[in-house]
TrEMBL record:
It is found in: Cytoplasm. Residues 3-116 form the Response regulatory domain. Pfam families: Response_reg, Trans_reg_C. InterPro entries: CheY-like_superfamily (IPR011006), OmpR/PhoB-type_DNA-bd (IPR001867), Sig_transdc_resp-reg_receiver (IPR001789), WalR-like (IPR039420), WH-like_DNA-bd_sf (IPR036388). Member of the two-component regulatory system KdpD/KdpE involved in the regulation of the kdp operon. Upon phosphorylation by KdpD, functions as a transcription regulator by direct binding to promoter regions of target genes to positively regulate their expression. GO terms for molecular function: cis-regulatory region sequence-specific DNA binding; identical protein binding; phosphorelay response regulator activity. Residues 129-228 bind DNA. Residues 129-228 form the OmpR/PhoB-type domain. The keyword DNA-binding applies. Keywords: Cytoplasm, DNA-binding, Phosphoprotein, Transcription, Transcription regulation, Two-component regulatory system. This is Transcriptional regulatory protein KdpE. It comes from Streptomyces indicus.
Amino acid sequence: MTRVLVVDDEPQIVRALVINLKARKYEVDAAADGATALQLAAARHPDVIVLDLGLPDMDGVDVIRGLRGWTRVPILVLSARHSSDEKVEALDAGADDYVTKPFGMDELLARLRAAVRRAEPVAGSGEDDVTVDTGDFTVDLAAKKVNRDGRDVRLTPTEWHLLEVLVRNTGRLVSQKQLLQEVWGPSYGTETNYLRVYMAQLRRKLEADPSHPKHFITEPGMGYRFER
């Protein structure tokens, strides 16, 4: 059974989540503060964590950083904070997804299922020999090649680096700041026009319909997501 750790100091939200998750055969642990959450995560090894940022003893972003020191468990942030800066901060700290309150239970559960699926290991593939086939094109991470319609697609080094970061985080929202710093360097973090230009180039080279992309998805004000 999939084990979920719910971290929130609002009893009514915890109760609603516990009822809905248990009804769908999840095992559920709950914590009302950050310290308890970190202790339960270490003791119970959840498969996914639903985390509120506004906790009574510490900021939820600090909880994310504490978890990322030793585990890659998917973290789904659930918060009343709506500003892009706060969302980006949580994603940069290591969160996998972000849902704002008030939220729809069906959407939250769908995002939770997606986070668990993405965390499952792919049989027979290692970190350095992954080939990703979208149906429209194939990315060979080991050979650093992209093939579309039986032909290699020529990418610039920057285009490849951007593609590689997104593909290695398939299904996960990657913040603008993270992409800029990984591709262009640590002194870059606000030059979002770079991303718009290079994402447009990747879509033109790889998407069947660049004006309606299905693989390189923009999350406005937050970042980008690669979907197979």
